[in-house]
Amino acid sequence: MIVRGGLHAASYEAWESSYFAALSTDVRNVMLRDAFVVNVKAGGAINGASGPPRMFLMHSGQARVTVVSREGRAATVRYAGPGQVLGLPAAIAGTSPIPAHAITDCEMSMLNVDTLRRLASTDPTVAWLLLQQTCAIIYEVVEILGDNIFGSVEQRLCRHLLDLADNSDAGLIVKVEQQELADAIGSVREVVARAIRKLREAGLVERHSRGLRIVNPSELHRIASGATTESDT
User: Fold this and answer.
1) Closest CA to 165 of 220, 98, 108, 87
2) Residue 112 gets which letter from DSSP?
3) Which residues lie across from 100 on neighbouring strands?
4) Distance from C-alpha of 19 to C-alpha of 30, rounded to nearest angstrom
5) Cα angle: 86, vertex 87, 93; to 5 degrees
6) pLDDT tens track of the chain, all 233 residues?
7) CA angle, residues 111, 116, 118, in degrees to nearest 5
8) Surface-to-core class of residue 8, CB atoms within 10 Å of its CB (0-12 exposed, 13-18 middle, 19+ buried)
9) Distance of alpha carbon 232 from alpha carbon 97, whole angstroms
10) Are the CB atoms for 111 and 57 separated by under 8 Å?
């Protein structure tokens, strides 16, 4: 669903919690006047591979960017939640070969790519911010790809559980299915199920009515980082 007219209260809130908050009020007002509020249901496509450049400022929900093999296997290379931006590289390059999908129901502002390009061509502050954030995205993707290539299933799973967790009144809750986790780390559901069972038996996660609850996030961080203790050796 698209809400036309821009100037949406949630757009302002998301803008102020994003890296765009470093820009001037004038830039913010120009960008948000040209924005549309978009709602995408869980599992729905946000950006298609090799489609036109589209950029989104997340209000709520969780989204992921994936790479897909010729055989159809997918692996997550980036997550985005409230206050984060999807599609900046596509806005700069003019297209993107990498699709994005909603993990949960998402609300976001679809920003006008042409307006952003015009501002970047005339305002060095805007151009420098976009350059910095593009570099940050590259480093983030390289880090996740490195984890997926060199890390064990348990390391990759712990990393993605932490990335996907929502802080709620019940604690840190992960609301995704095992198949989605398998897709995220480039594995299969049966392997992920065994790894989750191992984490449950160790008391690090537990079943919850909304999904999985993270009981010991610090230990998940330790496993995800590949750190060892004397008890591991």
Assistant:
1) 220
2) -
3) 47, 65
4) 16
5) 160
6) 444 444 578 899 999 999 999 999 999 999 999 898 999 998 888 887 767 888 999 999 888 887 777 776 667 788 888 999 999 988 998 877 788 888 888 999 999 999 999 999 999 999 999 999 999 988 888 877 777 777 788 988 998 888 888 777 878 888 888 888 887 777 888 999 999 999 999 999 998 888 889 999 889 888 887 764 433 43
7) 145
8) middle
9) 41
10) yes
Assigned token pair, 15? 């803008």
Helices (H), 102-211: 113-122, 124-150, 153-164, 178-185, 189-201
User: Treating both helix axes as pointing N-terminal to C-terminal, what angle do 113-122 and 25-33 enclose, rounded to 10 degrees?
Assistant: 150
Tokens 């970047």 -> residue: 120
The owner of tokens 């350059």 is: 131
What single-letter amino acid sits at 129? L
Domains, the chain, in order of start with CATH, read 2-148 (2.60.120.10), 152-232 (1.10.10.10)
Q: Considering only CA atoms, which of 195, 211, 55, 39 is closest in space to residue 119? A: 55
Which single residue is written with the structure tokens 């151009």? 127
Q: Do residues 46 and 80 touch, judged by C-beta distance below 8 A?
A: no
- Looking at the DSSP bridge assignments, the partners of residue 108 are 38, 58
